[in-house]
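User: Working on a comparison across species. This one is NAD(P)-binding domain-containing protein from Urochloa decumbens. Can you predict its structure so I can line it up against the others?
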Amino acid sequence: MASARPHLPPTLALPAAARNLVLRCRAVSTMDAASVSSPGAEKKTTTVFVAGSTGRTGKRVVEKLLAKGFVVVAGTTDIGRARGSLPQNPNLQLVRADVTEGADKLVEVVRGVDAVVCATGFRRSFDPFAPWKVDNFGTVNLVEACRKAGVTRFVLVSSILVNGAAMGQLLNPAYIVLNLLGLTLVAKLQAEKHIRKSGINYTIVRPGGLTDQPSTGNIVMEPEDTFYSGSVSRDQVAEVAVGALLCTVFLRSRRDCCPG
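Assistant: Here's the predicted structure for NAD(P)-binding domain-containing protein from Urochloa decumbens:
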């Protein structure tokens, strides 16, 4: 592509986001340092694969990546739906990708990208195992596809209270309700554990209850297993996910690039 790498500010300022948002960073940039810092180095457009691109949060991630100048490969199980819901942009490519179909089928769709944002989530159905198929095994499949394809940067949009049992929140109504839907939080926690052990550079974003309201308020970031209530705009979660990628590129030499 002809466009340049998204501009990196002198100091990183994550966009205004919301209350009760946990952002955990353990990241070293996958970009070559010379391509960022050397004035004469050839610049390269950063390409990001987004899983769950037609979901209410994933769509916002795609839009904000495009606005920042990234090239986006949008993974979807329904190309027709994606064409109708995602913006028309020369930097956007639509590909069929189903995280439940195994890592081998995902390898080719992520090969060549610089980073992956996983914003998948199961759709309510009569299948009691849907949360595990998508939020656990699906995420694991995507991580393994990245390892096979040589993609070393991964951002996961997870959820508040995934580790509620260890936090003493077993009786928290939100923890109970979410786990009534096929042990959703337990499934997400298992996926997080796999990411942490995978060796891939990762960021896990644990937002509170997701809303479709416009962005308001200031960002609050705390260590994992700190917040156990609250809500946050999907727009703000998408901003933080994209900000995590910019954080990684700019602060490529630091292990922990953000608070927490």
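For your comparison, note: Residues 1-43, 249-260 have pLDDT under 50 and may be disordered.

User: Helpful, thanks.
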